[in-house]
Design brief:
DNA-binding, 6-stranded antiparallel β-sheet, homodimer, two-stranded antiparallel sheet, disordered C terminus, disordered N terminus, elongated, alpha+beta, 25% helix
Chain lengths: 256, 256
DNA sequence: CCTTGGTCGTTTGTCAGACAAACCGCTGGC
DNA sequence: GCCAGCGGTTTGTCTGACAAACGACCAAGG
């Protein structure tokens, strides 16, 4: 075998990474397992050692493995995560993962001029308009999240009618399939709060009920903001988890 | 120049990564900037192309750059993060970063038998004992966080007296300097709650005040739990931020 | 004039082979 | 019994090369 072509558009090293993550997740590569030496392992996977090393580097960064020169590479034991915020899944998926039946009620969609807050976070010019989607998400029929999403009307390519599909499918899926917009990452800010009159009505709880308010901006791979969403989660319905890296190998963020 | 030795123990590719992160953070490599071709850039940095590529791979994973074959590598525009939970900084650092003067009051340290909850999360055997540290952290003299940390007595190498230093320095720093324990990552779970009688007393607020409760377990690089901490944050004192990867390039987690 | 198709240079992705450095276990000398 | 040295193993880095994808340019055809 010589060159190693890709059938789809993905990179070979990324594919190798995913294959390894699967084998770790499935338990085939249990924590404590020592991987074969890199040259041997690369031959086994049918890729070059440098390509394998790219995948290993990535896995090491995420804490799946530990590499030591002269010793080898061993699979790290990691704790099971139930509902981690690191992965930007949709509310629908979160409800599903928690073992409940997700649903949506009371969808309301309007198009209006963006307020200053929206213009700033979505980097919109003066006078721009946004499509706003309000939804109440349910788990086993009980309201658990009220959300208000805003995205620039310009992104909808003049077909805002497509948004009606939101009752059935996830926002992310719809953005990707209908409009070709891929969300690369999101930045979420959250704080506890008490339900005000309006949110209490949507979630069918008393005013003052305990909520977690999450404000999130989703960006594409070029760092351009796509979606601004406000979510009001019922405190007792969810538990959020985050993997925090470092200290030790500190993943610095640009301060500018 | 031929081989490229390291003065300290770090890897050359990691050093290159850090140097590049600094240049991005400082604004020298502004968003939108196109990096030189890899061979040229590697020569400029005095490292081999493969080493540079390891650093670039890492930066791409964290969203700092975008690479496209036939086009080049460009610096991605990223939003400024004020207080992101991704990096596992200490409470002290968080207060400092928010522009306040951090302080500690009412330190209480006891050693007692671990309860079942602690034994399970820290993977301790029956009958193990833990050192428990209770602290009230202040910002500009005002209490903002009450925390209760527990760690196995075995880790202290029979020198629990060293814990007294906690009034002055960060838990992470103390663990590393005094006991040689490096925290690799932590897993935090959080939910909103109202202050009960005890916490309200420590934070000098009325009962029922809005809090964010954070339970975190810190692990070393082998995935062994080191530290269990419960933190009660005053809701209005902090705002938490998380970078959520994907969807699109989904960073899968082991489900087992 | 505009569109369409191909060509070519640029740049990242992958491959191959080699040496250097660090770690581990073993062994011999004291 | 203990420590220093030695060699094998394995990751880290270097060098050089080809393949694949992308963009810009240009020529032919309508």
């Amino acid at each position: 075998m010589r060159r190693n072509p890709r059938s789809d558009g993905a990179r070979l090293s990324s594919l190798a990474r995913e294959r390894l993550v699967e084998r770790i997740a499935s338990g085939e590569l249990a924590p404590g397992t020592k991987l074969p030496p890199e040259p041997e392992f690369a031959a086994e996977l049918g890729i070059a050692r440098s390509t394998l090393r790219e995948a290993l580097r990535s896995l090491e960064e995420d804490g799946f493995i530990t590499r030591t020169r002269g010793v080898g590479t061993v699979v790290t034991s990691r704790t099971r995560l139930t509902n981690n915020l690191d992965v930007n899944f949709s509310v629908t998926e979160a409800i599903w993962a928690a073992g409940h039946e997700p649903g949506t009620e009371a969808v309301r969609i309007v198009t209006r001029a963006a307020d200053e807050h929206e213009r700033q976070l979505l980097r919109l010019p003066e006078g721009a308009s946004v499509a706003v989607i309000e939804r109440t998400r349910t788990a086993d029929g009980r309201p658990v999240v009220f959300s208000r999403d805003a995205l620039s009307s310009d992104l909808l390519l003049g077909r805002p009618d497509q948004l009606r599909g939101l009752a059935a499918e996830s926002t992310y899926e719809l953005l990707e399939r209908r409009y070709g917009l891929t969300v690369h990452h999101g930045i979420a800010t959250f704080r506890p709060m008490k339900a005000d009159r309006e949110v209490a009505r949507h979630l069918r709880v008393t005013r003052g009920a305990l909520l977690l308010y999450v404000r999130q901006v989703d960006y594409d791979e070029n760092g351009l903001p796509l979606l601004l969403s406000h979510e009001y989660h019922l405190a007792e319905a969810f538990e959020f988890t985050v993997v925090r890296r470092g200290p030790g190998r500190r993943a610095a963020s640009p301060s500018q």
